[in-house]
Write a structure and sequence with these properties.
The complex is a heterotrimer.
Chain A (H helix, E strand, L loop, with lengths): L4 H10 L6 H18 L23 E2 L9 H5 L5 E2 L2 E4 L10
Antiparallel strand pairs in A: 2-3
Chain B lengths: L7 H9 L5 H19 L2 E4 L1 H17 L11 E5 L26 H8 L3 E6 L33 H9 L4 E6 L5 H7 L2 E4 L19 E6 L2 H11 L17 H4 L8 E5 L9 H16 L3 E5 L4 H19 L17 H12 L2 H14 L5 H24 L2 E5 L14 H5 L6 H6 L3 E9 L2 E8 L5 H13 L16
Parallel strand pairs in B: 2-3, 2-4, 7-8, 7-9
Antiparallel strand pairs in B: 1-3, 4-6, 5-6, 5-10, 9-11, 10-11
Chain C lengths: L3 E12 L37 E2 H13 L7 E2 L2 E4 L9 E4 L6 E10 L2 E14 L3 E4 L10 E4 L6 E7 L6 H17 L12 E11 L9 E4 L4 H20 L7 E6 L4 E7 L9 E2 L6 E2 L2 H9 L5 H12 L3 H7 L3 H12 L4 H19 L9 H13 L5 H14 L3 H8 L7 H14 L1 H8 L6 H11 L6 H14 L1
Parallel strand pairs in C: 12-13
Antiparallel strand pairs in C: 1-10, 1-11, 3-16, 4-5, 4-15, 6-7, 7-10, 8-9, 11-12, 13-14
Helix pairs in contact in C: 2-3, 5-6, 7-9, 8-10, 9-10, 12-14, 12-15, 14-15
Classes of the chains: A mainly alpha, B alpha/beta, C alpha+beta.
């Protein structure tokens, strides 16, 4: 599989990573090489194998529906780089932010 | 009595017979840290105030009921900076978290604090635990106490180095693909990765959720088992943490290896293994044989492809786990007028090159059109890796191998990402299968440590300690002191 | 002009009435809390935290699935839905993708006297997001947005309906019935205005007879059942005019603007979002065996349709009356309590649906919480049934006691409100009334039915309003027909 510069742009957007042109060029080369190595995954016959989403056999791990103490507003926003009183605040959302 | 280069066992006795106090141990540790860290850069922050409080609390506990106090009570230690401590700066060695202070303490750490541990500081590591040399830290790399121009391994390089340097007798790290075992090998200390699900991950800044585990670095296997026993066990806050009871590793520690069948996977001693490493490890095999174990060659054919499995799954999970670092609620933000710009600039400036590489790789592997070929395929081959271990463990009780194909390499010498990834080729399969593993010192090559890895089936953590202890006690490697640890206190 | 067939599919998101959030212990009820007060490290998505599944939320979702006739697969799991937005702290939502909690159900409901059946594709469980306020209220022109994560992590059940609906009215009735079921089984409070019950619609047109679906438009922001119907009507009109004019429709998301009575384009759906779903590694899967499912099934109450049918057969009520009384589970419970307390079925139905309902509305207090209560009303209605008081007296007492409470029997005694029903005494009063109103008597005998009213009023006044009026009516007619 050959990566294209468009692929790098697209993936960077999906991941919301701001990359310089130099970074993109470097990543293109590095990722191509890594993907080249990883390609050997395709050689393995997995037709009889199920996926391991998790090791172990745990199932039905649930919590009783009991309310617990909250952090409270002050602690919740304490680490915020920008806040407006009790709210977190961000800049302009132009309406297309959800486009991946 | 100096805390420098002493073991937990020795210090616990000294605290109880009056020859030292928690405060005295702490002062020695801090003084040693100050002297050594200019060269080592093992610490990102020193938690002096917290440590003093904890030392005082420990002193009271030891005075009132020394027999009930944990063996860890009053003993200084350090924490890899991916472990959240309430009110203490926790950065994951990343600029994006510079200044972040969690409002809570993780479970494993809290268990140590409750046992009377004295936290000296947060140690340096690869950014977000991604790396095998600690060169990916945003705050400078860490020197190997055996040769400061060389890497200590990674990602838990700081935690390994501080124990190897003799500043503290133990520390906590995290292991996702070998990040405890490999630095333990490269710095000549003991490092243990528990069975996946044995130690709660609540409070561990997540890298790869299905692979991460917290574990200890110590000078001896007994110390390692002691720390492990204090942190292991069910936690309702971590749904992947197993509820079954923990077998106390100290009960079976001294049983020896008489009659045990040990497997040597031929793929773990391949061409990439340095001759000196091979020689040291083969000598270790001979020691185990002399102790009464039988050694058998076994095969784990998926070893080669396991690297590819890991480098799809770990980046995929990390790309999702790191999405929360967006500058909105915590961490550093690059302020921009539009939200998308803010996200991109914040993450672009805040993440280092390796993190970006893995986030890109992981996002790609999960993206539409590639999910089946990469992520799904990797999860299937992961099943194969686990099946092969299951099959081998039908034949043998434990697996022994080198921990790392090479000894500590010079800083900057592995700039090609892929060559760095190859450091973990014999450690990462254990993470994929969720089995426990340890690295224990087994020799030197030109003054640089070599580590012996022991692996066992899931939940046979006690057996890992048993084999490692038998080997350790039949040799003198655990008495070796790095140059930093031989200085007078 | 082409004859188009309308194809509507509805998606409902319903917040669950659990005590705590879906994946952490914060209270699920965040109304009235200061912004960001109702949070913890887990729902804030801080570094190092992990989710834990709320078992009540799973129970409620299975309960809903059973009420909607869905299959419950033996294996189900959570998945991560990855995207960036400020109201989504982790950068992913824990939801369900390919192996949801339930599949293949259906809902039947009346539309204009006919029964319509709509398939339910799936019911699954996920977590709600936070809320955002855009400075200036309009997203597209706001320079900043304020984020409140109180709602983040509240359990959310997603109910996806098959595109089986063919009219806006059917869509509305589907929602009415669905909401009724959810409130009946106690999993959701059915509040559209506050957003605990949310609905989005997918609408497309195709020439009648075609089997392929037309371009699908998603319609959002409909905050009442009426808005749903109006929005769909408006959208169908819009799509029809575009197609009739030979244009092509764009697959997009449109928001309903109540004030303008039309939908406006929000964002293009041309590029489908790449959510990069993968199984949630922090949560083991759920294996729900048949024993578990049957346990949940046993907790299901009688559903509205079945209860209404039983009210018809057991109490002899009309379909209409039965439907009114079983509209909510609470009112159905009140009715059956009245009947169990000895009030005749029809009497109870008339009063409950009529005067009592009006008072409940006026005072915004349901009967069980009123001064009178169910027990008090039962006493009052038994007095009416036994002839101790007449209808008008009972109505007056009801109005008074609904607010103030009190013992109806004692009040009847104290105030001498007992009904006058002695035939002899009434006959005398009837004769007196006829004698005093010869004109009205003559008119009635001549065929003017309404003239009886004047005579009735005369007898009523003579008894201070306590006469047994149906008896008075009979006595008057007997007397006048005899003449």
């Amino acid at each position: 599989m050959t990566l294209s510069r468009d692929d790098v742009d697209h993936v960077a957007m999906l991941a919301r990573l701001g990359l310089s042109d130099e970074e993109k060029s470097r990543l293109l080369a590095e990722l191509e090489k890594i993907l080249g190595h990883i390609a050997r995954l395709q050689q393995v016959d997995t037709s009889m194998l199920a996926e391991t989403a998790q090791v172990g056999d745990l199932a039905n791990v649930m919590r009783a529906d009991e309310p617990k103490p909250t952090l409270g507003t002050v602690a919740a926003v304490r680490n915020a780089p920008a806040a407006d009183g009790s709210y977190f605040i961000v800049g302009a959302i132009q309406g297309n932010e959800l486009d991946s | 009595m100096s805390s420098t280069a002493s073991t937990i066992t020795e210090l616990a006795a000294a605290l109880r017979d009056g020859s030292t106090t928690p405060r005295a141990l702490l002062d020695e540790a801090l003084a040693h840290l100050e002297r050594s860290d200019k060269q080592l850069n093992a610490y990102l922050s020193v938690t002096r105030e917290l440590a003093i409080q904890q030392a005082d609390t420990a002193a009271r506990a030891l005075a009132e009921h020394p027999e009930r106090a944990s063996p860890l009570c009053g003993i200084p230690m350090a924490l890899k900076d991916v472990l959240c401590v309430e009110g203490v700066e926790t950065t994951a060695a990343s600029k994006i978290l510079n200044g972040f202070k969690p409002p809570y303490t993780g479970t494993a750490v809290q268990r140590l604090f409750d046992a009377g541990a004295v936290c000296v500081g947060k140690t340096n590591c690869d950014e977000f635990a991604m790396g095998s040399s600690t060169e990916n830290s945003a705050f400078g790399s860490v020197g190997n106490p055996w040769d400061v121009e060389r890497v200590p391994g990674g990602s838990s390089g700081g935690s390994a180095a501080t124990v190897a340097a003799g500043t503290v007798p133990y520390s906590l790290g995290s292991d996702t693909g070998g990040s405890i075992r490999q630095p333990a090998a490269l710095t000549g200390v003991v490092g243990f990765k528990p069975t996946y699900g044995r130690v709660s991950r609540y409070g561990l800044i997540a890298f790869a959720s299905s692979l991460d585990q917290i574990g200890p670095f110590t000078r001896t296997v007994e110390d390692c088992a002691t720390v492990y026993a204090a942190i292991a066990g069910h936690d309702p806050r971590d749904s992947t943490c197993d509820p079954r009871a923990v077998d106390d590793p100290l009960l079976t520690l001294r049983k020896g290896v008489e009659g045990m069948r040990l497997g040597i996977p031929r793929e773990y001693l391949g061409e990439g293994t340095e001759p000196g490493v091979r020689a040291a490890v083969e000598a270790a095999f001979a020691v185990l044989e002399a102790q009464g174990a039988t050694l058998h060659e076994v095969s784990l054919p998926s070893t080669d492809v396991a690297l590819s499995v890991y480098y799809v799954i770990a980046p995929a999970e990390c790309s999702s786990n790191l999405a929360r670092y967006d500058g909105v609620r915590f961490g550093n933000r690059v302020e921009r007028q539009s939200l998308t710009d803010m996200y991109q600039q914040t993450r672009g400036a805040g993440f280092g090159a390796e993190v970006k590489r893995r986030v890109m790789l992981g996002t790609y592997a999960l993206s539409s059109g590639y999910y089946d070929a990469y992520y799904r395929q990797a999860q299937k081959v992961r099943t194969l890796v686990g099946q092969e271990f299951d099959s081998v463990f039908q034949e043998v009780d434990a697996i022994v191998s080198p921990t790392s194909p090479s000894v500590a390499f010079p800083m900057g010498s592995r700039s090609d990402p892929l060559s760095m990834y190859l450091c973990d080729v014999v450690t990462l399969p254990a993470n994929l299968a969720g089995i426990p593993g340890i690295s224990v010192p087994c020799g030197f090559v030109d003054g640089l440590p070599v580590g012996l890895q022991v692996l066992a089936p899931r939940f046979a953590d006690a057996r890992v300690f048993q084999v490692a202890h038998a080997y350790e006690q039949a040799t003198a490697w655990h008495s070796s002191r790095s140059p930093f640890a031989t200085e007078a206190a | 002009m082409t004859d188009y067939e309308v194809v509507i599919g509805l998606e409902v998101h319903a917040q669950l009435l659990t005590r705590s959030k879906m994946f952490c212990g914060c209270p699920a009820n965040y109304l009235g809390a200061e912004p960001n007060a109702n949070t913890c490290p887990v729902c804030l998505g801080l570094p190092g935290v992990l989710p834990t599944i709320n078992e009540q939320a799973v129970d409620f979702t299975v309960r809903t699935a059973l009420a909607l006739q869905c299959d419950i697969p033996a294996f189900t799991k959570f998945d991560r839905k990855n995207y960036f937005y400020p109201d989504l702290p982790k950068g992913y939502q824990i939801s369900q993708y390919d192996l949801p909690l339930s599949l293949n159900g259906h809902l039947e409901f009346p539309v204009n006297g006919e029964t319509v059946r709509c398939g339910v594709t799936r019911v699954h469980l996920e977590e709600d997001t936070g809320t955002m306020h855009h400075a200036g209220d309009v997203l597209q022109s706001a320079t900043s947005s304020l984020i409140d994560l109180n709602r983040c992590g509240v359990p959310l059940m997603e109910i996806v309906g098959e595109p089986d609906l063919r009219t806006p009215e059917a869509a509305r009735e589907y929602l009415v019935r669905l909401r009724q079921i959810l409130t009946y089984i106690g999993v959701n409070d059915g509040n559209l205005e506050q957003g605990s019950f949310r609905c989005d619609a997918n609408v497309s047109l195709r020439p009648r007879g075609d089997t392929e679906l037309g371009v699908k438009v998603e319609v959002k922001n409909m905050n009442s059942f009426r808005a749903v119907q109006r929005a769909l009507e408006s959208e169908i009109e819009r799509q029809t005019s575009v197609l009739d004019a030979g244009g092509t429709l764009v697959q997009e998301t449109r928001g309903w603007v109540e004030a303008h009575g039309r939908t406006i384009a929000q964002r293009s759906k041309e590029q489908a979002h790449d959510y990069r779903y993968f199984p949630e590694p922090d949560l083991p899967p759920l294996r729900l065996d048949s024993a578990f499912v049957e346990r949940v099934r046993a907790t299901l109450p009688e559903l509205p349709e079945a209860r209404a049918a039983r009210f018809q057969s057991q109490y002899g009520l009309t379909a209409y009356d039965a439907a009114v009384l079983t509209d909510t589970r609470e009112s159905a419970d009140v009715y059956e309590a009245l009947v169990a307390a000895g009030v005749p079925a029809k009497l109870a139905a008339n009063w409950q649906s009529g005067d009592v309902a009006a008072l409940a509305n006026e005072h915004r207090v349901p009967l069980p919480q009123s001064g009178l209560g169910i027990a008090g009303l039962a006493v009052l209605l038994r007095l009416v049934d036994g002839g101790a008081i007449n209808g008008p007296t009972a109505k007056e007492l009801l109005v008074e006691l609904y607010v103030s409470g009190g013992d109806p029997e004692a009040l009847v005694r104290e105030r001498g409100l007992a009904q006058v029903s002695d035939a002899g005494a009434l006959t005398a009063l009837v004769d007196a009334a006829i004698a005093a109103n010869p004109g009205a008597a003559a008119d009635f005998s001549a065929g003017k039915q309404q003239a009886l009213g004047q005579l009735m009023r005369a007898v009523k006044d003579a008894t201070g309003g306590k006469a047994d009026m149906p008896l008075v009516n009979r006595l008057l007619r007997d007397r006048l027909s005899g003449q």
